[in-house]
Amino acid sequence: MISLRNVQKIFGTRPAVENLDLEVSRGEIFGLLGHNGAGKSTAIGMMLGQVWPTAGEIRICSHDVTARRQDALQKVGAIFESPVFYDYLSGWRNLEILSHYTAPTSKKRIAEVIEWVGLTGREKSKVKTYSHGMRARLALAQALLPQPELLILDEPSDGLDPEGIHEMRQTILRLHKEFSLTILLSSHLLNEVEQLCTRIAVLNHGKKVFDGTIATATKNQNWTRLRTSDFELATEKLRGAKFIRDTRDGNLIALNENVGTDEVVRLLVAEKISVFEIAPHQETLEDFYLTLMNKN
Amino acid sequence: MFFYQLKNELWKLFGKKRTYIGFSMLLLAQLIIILMLRFYPPAHRGLTHSIEASGFFGAQYISMLTIATIMAFVLAYTLLPLYVALVGGDLVSKEYEDGTLRMILSRPVSRVRLLFLKWLAGVVFSFVLVVSLAAGGLIFSGLMFPITGGSFTQFPDDPTNIGIFPFQEGLQRFLLAHAFMVLKAVTIMSLAFMFSCFNMKPAAAAILALSIILIDRILMEIPFFHDLKEYFLGHYLNAWQTFYFQHLWYWHLVESAAMLCAFSLTFLIIGLAVFQVRDIKS
Predict the structure, then answer these.
(1) Starting from the edge strand earliest in sequence, which strands make up the sheet with A223-228, in order?
(2) What is the pLDDT along chain B (282 residues), one digit of tens a residue?
(3) B109, B91, B107: which is closest to A80 by C-alpha?
């Protein structure tokens, strides 16, 4: 659905995106992560033909965005952070204006979408009277009007309160389920990405530093969680026995190869150290992300 | 589809309160001029004197057409360029500044088509503004001065040049001059529109356009540069006033119309070229 090959964007002398390869398959919810200025919005801008790439190829729905932008965006809807509209016009008029840039849209279709996003009754009010949450719904409505197959969401929860964030998350899941949409989601909210996405890519200073499933990102291959009566003493004994090679966060140990947790427990019990818990450590996306950023 | 999109651009333009500032101020200025000419004796005396010093009856030529023409001469050089430049400078820059342009450009609409639609909306605004200038002039002066009197025009830059017409011909000249004035308004709007396609604030685009018009005018007014007048934009922008010459200067009108169309198209094409290569970011 989305394919970026060796894409590069340089603003003046500053590279914003470097040699980016990305593949998003049909039906996926794909997360794009990275700090401010990592290149996420530039990458999204290039996907939508708003920012011209310095080099590389970008294909959306099998069409080259640079050469055939209109064809590429025919079935694409997009929402940007802090959605802006023509505040002095009604919600309905805004939807009419924006949808007509894609194709003529019937009043029936506009009414359907307004109902779907839950704005019925307020569609004739001026947008300047809308709350932030209502604007987010209107943004969703304008993205859904062309009956998209691909939805690009750039920080859709930006500025929403916790209830709004929850509602947006449920809406994204509903869209994915009901319309089988492919969704590209750029967000700072790692918890949100973890709950929604099947696959992620992480950008750091314009370069991709990770691309894989959430399961791969959060699967811990090295760390074991150990809770004992005295972690310091326990790790000293385990080091002495050459059972571990590293410790972290006051409760994580990295076992040496061919050392089992049963051996660790036996040793600690023999040393009269109580063991309350020993289990493989499941990392959160946040742990993974922070480790990745520190590494890079 | 094209007409739907144009209709939407007009909704965006005419839905904004600030669009109406130009109309309101034009009407206000006209109202003040009318009241001064009607009720401020020195102004009335001065006008009568100008007409009678040229050998005509003041009572016959202090009329709706004469007063409406005086207002047109004043406002076409001052408020008209200001408001078309403000709107032209807003058309692209304001949408970029507000962030709505990014929303539009996530749609499968080409940048060329989008800009052409916006420019056309600017053309419609320029047309409506000139029509309101003409209509306001006729209506206000018709309320305070005799309607059927003849038209007397004395050119400010050459007081010996006088245009004097009976009512019917005067009305025709007045309407033709305003029709030509639309070209002037469109050209200034296009100049501001061109600047608004660059990466700059709406006000900067309008100020740049107005500065160019003013510099052009200043240079044109310097006596030593009179031989070069064909090279100044103002020479063509102000061709509308030749409709008040006693003998119509057809060649100059045709040449000016062609030049103003060419200038407008050039400004549009430069704007398109600049906008086409720009990166639209938040």
Answers:
(1) A244-248, A252-255, A223-228, A275-280
(2) 888 899 999 999 999 998 999 899 999 999 999 999 889 999 888 888 888 888 888 778 889 999 999 999 999 999 999 999 999 999 999 999 999 999 999 999 999 999 999 999 999 999 999 999 999 999 999 999 999 888 888 887 777 788 889 999 999 999 999 999 999 999 999 999 999 999 999 999 999 999 999 999 999 989 888 889 899 999 999 999 999 888 888 899 999 999 999 999 999 999 999 999 999 887
(3) B107
Decide: helix, strand or coil at residue A88. coil
Contacts of A93 (CB under 8 A, 6+ apart): A86, B11, B15
A77: chain B residues, CB-CB within 8 Å: 106
Query: Does any domain span residue B91?
Result: yes
- Distant-in-sequence, close-in-space partners of A188: CB < 8 Å, separation ≥ 6: A155
Residue B45 lies in a domain: yes
Torsion sign, CA atoms A132, A138, A140, A142: negative
Sign of CA dihedral B195, B198, B202, B204: negative
ipTM for the predicted complex comes to: 0.84
Domain that holds residue B153: 2-276
In a domain, B282, yes or no: no
CB A84 within 8 A of CB A76: no
Please name which of B37, B29, B36, B119 lies closest in space to residue B78, comparing C-alpha atoms: B29
User: Rounded to whole angstroms, how far apart are CA atoms B206 and B196?
Assistant: 8
Chain B residues in contact with A74 (beta carbon < 8 A): 108
Cross-strand pairs, A223: A254
| N residues, chain B | 282
Tell me the nearest-neighbour CA distance from A200 into chain B, angstroms.
23
- Structural domain count, chain B: 1
Structure tokens at A258: 């061919």
Interface test with A, best of B9, B19, B91, B107 (most A CBs within 10 A): B107
Contact A175, A139 (CB under 8 A): no
Assess if residue B281 is contained within a domain.
no
Whether the predicted model's global pTM rises above the 0.80 cut: yes
Specify whether the CB–CB gap between B225 and B207 falls below 8 A.
Answer: no
Mutate to test the interface with A, among B7, B101, B106 (most CBs of A within 10 A): B106
Alpha carbons A91 and A125: distance in angstroms, whole number: 6
User: Measured in whole angstroms, how far is the alpha carbon of residue A62 from the centre of its chain?
Assistant: 23
